[in-house]
Amino acid sequence: MPPTKKAPAKSALSDPDLALIASLAEILNDTGLSEIELDRKGTKFRVAKQLTAVAQVASAQPAPAVHAHAAPLHEVPAAAPKPADHPGTVKSPMVGTVYMAPSPGSANFIEIGSSVKEGQTLLIIEAMKTMNQIHAPRAGKVTAIYVDNGHPVEYGEPLVAIE
User: Fold this and answer.
1) Where are the alpha helices (DSSP H) in 6-54?
2) What are phi and psi of 66, to 5 degrees?
3) CA separation (Å) from 75 to 55, 72, 95, 136?
4) pTM here?
5) Which of 24, 92, 104, 107 could form a disulfide with 47 if both were Cys (CB 3.0 to 4.6 A apart)?
6) What distance in Å separates the CA atoms of residue 163 and residue 154, rounded to the nearest whole number?
7) Could you tell me the residue ranges of all domains in the chain?
8) How would you label 58-71 residue by residue, b for 16+ Cβ within 10 Å and e otherwise?
9) Among the residues of the chain, which ranges form H helices?
10) Selecting from 3.40.50.970, 3.40.50.1010, 2.40.50.100, 2.60.120.380, what CATH number does the domain 83-162 have?
11) pLDDT at residue 134 tops 60
12) Does residue 45 contact residue 35 with C-beta atoms inside 8 Å?
């Protein structure tokens, strides 16, 4: 009696599905997002990165600079409160991409030291191909800018501080 061959186990995912998942993962890496979900013909695909927080412990010795390029583009004074604790912090109302100017090559809406009026546009957040103007909730002086042009932001992330 000849031996019987087993059929290879069928995966619930087809090759196009695996290719879609791989491309979603690539989008996560390219955009800096932490999660993306897609509903395609009744099948939901969700790809997420597990982010780990690293606690820093204060030490008597100064730590060597590991990533010199990681310095913020907009300097914040050393004695400044944490962005989320600052009473004049304007936080992102949505997830999206920040744009500091109305169009490429144009002057930024604000700079550190700019005086703003209540309702004045501070920046734009692009979300789902829609440009959303973020307005100053009150008049004052811009003391810090916590985001960079063209970078993604999360909901509730500090954007600017107004005093």
Assistant:
1) 15-31
2) -85, -45
3) 23, 6, 24, 21
4) 0.50
5) 24
6) 23
7) 15-48, 83-162
8) eeeeeeeeeeeeee
9) 15-31
10) 2.40.50.100
11) yes
12) no
